[in-house]
Design brief:
Elements: H1 10-18, H2 23-47, H3 49-57, H4 62-75, H5 79-89, H6 92-116, H7 124-154, H8 160-188, H9 192-211, H10 229-237, H11 240-259, H12 263-268, H13 275-303, H14 306-318, H15 333-359, H16 366-396, E1 400-403, E2 406-409, H17 410-429, H18 437-441
Antiparallel strand pairs: 1-2
Helix pairs in contact: 2-8, 2-9, 4-7, 4-16, 5-7, 5-16, 6-7, 6-9, 7-16, 8-9, 8-13, 8-15, 11-16, 11-17, 13-15, 14-15, 14-17
Length: about 450
């Protein structure tokens, strides 16, 4: 019987045929796609509403939830050490797999915290979770640096945008299924047992994601001539395209982390929505839109430019925070519409960010550039953004008032203010950003 290529993989096969890829490279890229199916299950569970509910049930308020999100970001600064080790040893595959397995396996311990950590003193369990999530983030540094460096050498540049888009659309489908399953489990398994089950599942599938890379070829890394991070950093400071890229995405990360991570807290708390409702209106709706739009973004990213994609993504996203004006207890539709529009725009924006990180960094010492980018965006963007969002919510307290029939609370004010800041900063910084392929390679 003749083997038939699954429908979901036929667009990738056509892409391979278009560029005449060798059989071995096709096999490696297929494994990259396969691995992310498992990885998306892990990411969906560990970053979705389950974590927000877990923190809430462990006694976390808005600021402690922000702290749970923020402290692991500091673990991302380990990417400097990770990049130094990778560049010196030239063994990125080894470090990627070793620390990747450790990082994903730590979620088994997180799943067991309610059973192995005593309830007294108060907040001990929450601090145990914060410590383990932070440690997981630190080990993930080797995964992040290694992946971008590895894929930058493995995926041919002319097809990179479309391949990453197809990979994202396929993996998002797995994320949708995982989100539905996780929300059903959390709604139907009472107490801490539900969190234990879903986080254990995340650990298993996340580990499988990393193990698959054992069979993927690691191309030879370009010789860095044993450069120190200080030398690379000085060269990066003179690299105007990279600096502009770094500035834009740092500000973007700050605005995003100031508001969006608190959507699930708002939905599960004041709005009183169930895990399944939040998942359907959030991860599932967003995942479906991403699958439907990301290939379109990827084609235009390859055929036009990063600027063409980014401008349109920013414009779509600009009006989304206004939907929170209509949020009220029991109503899931504002969250649904927000995630539909946000995901449609974010698919293109995320692809642009990944593409520009590869094209605005030179092959030589790329992992060090990636580490520099990660450190700055992690501290100035994510860490400060999380804490600022949590602190503002705590400072506003039980604030509530009505204007023209619309009720405003502290969450709505944060979402509207953060959305306005993101839109204005994007419009101001877009003209400075190297948006064409020629600009991205200039001044190196």
């Amino acid at each position: 019987m003749k083997y038939r290529i699954p429908m979901s993989l036929r667009p990738i096969t056509r892409l391979y045929n278009q560029y005449g890829l060798a059989r071995e490279l096709r096999r490696d890229l297929n494994l990259v796609v396969l691995s992310v199916l498992f990885g998306m299950i892990h990411a969906t569970i560990t970053t979705g509403p389950g974590l927000a509910g877990f923190a809430r049930d462990l006694g976390a308020g808005d600021f402690y939830y922000a702290l749970l999100m923020a402290l692991p970001v500091l673990g991302g600064t380990m990417q400097l050490a990770a990049s130094w080790i990778i560049e010196r040893t030239r063994r990125r595959k080894k470090w990627f797999i070793l620390f990747g397995v450790v990082q994903r396996s730590l979620w088994l311990l997180i799943a067991l915290v309610p059973w192995i950590v005593p309830m007294v003193p108060a907040m001990l369990r929450l601090w145990a979770v914060i410590a383990l999530v932070t440690l997981s983030s630190m080990t993930a540094s080797f995964v992040n640096v290694g992946f971008f460096s590895w894929m930058g050498d493995l995926i041919p540049l002319p097809m990179r945008g479309r391949f990453l888009a197809l990979r994202l659309s396929i993996s998002t489908a797995a994320g949708v299924a995982a989100a539905l399953a996780a929300s059903w489990l959390l709604d139907n398994i009472a107490g801490m047992a539900g969190y234990t089950v879903v986080f254990s599942i995340a650990a298993v599938f996340g580990t499988l994601d990393i193990v698959i890379y054992l069979w993927i070829k690691d191309p030879p890394m370009e010789q860095s001539h044993s450069e120190s991070f200080a030398v690379v950093a000085r060269r990066a400071v003179r690299n105007r395209p990279f600096l502009r890229y770094l500035l834009f995405w740092t500000v973007w990360a700050f605005c995003w982390n100031l508001t969006v991570p608190f959507n699930n807290v708002y939905a599960l708390g004041p709005l009183g929505l169930s895990f399944q409702a939040v998942t359907l209106a959030g991860q599932v709706a967003g995942g479906v839109v991403t699958v439907l739009t990301v290939s379109w973004w990827g084609r235009h990213l390859d055929a036009r430019s990063a600027g063409w994609v980014l401008r349109r993504g920013v414009l779509i996203m600009a009006g989304m925070p206004l939907l929170w004006l209509f949020a009220r207890p029991g109503a899931a539709w504002p969250l649904l519409l927000f995630n539909l529009g946000y995901s449609a725009a974010n698919g293109g924006i995320s692809l642009t960010s990944s593409q520009m990180l590869m094209t605005s960094t030179p092959p030589r010492s790329r992992s060090l550039y990636v580490a520099l980018y990660a450190i700055v965006t992690s501290i100035a963007g994510a860490f400060v953004g999380y804490l600022a969002g949590g602190a503002l919510l705590e400072l506003m307290g039980p604030l509530s008032f009505t204007v023209a029939g619309l009720t405003f609370d502290r969450y709505k004010l944060l979402f509207l203010g953060g959305g306005a800041l993101q839109t204005m900063s994007s419009l101001l910084l877009l003209p400075l950003l190297p948006l064409s392929e020629e600009q991205q390679h200039a001044d190196r």
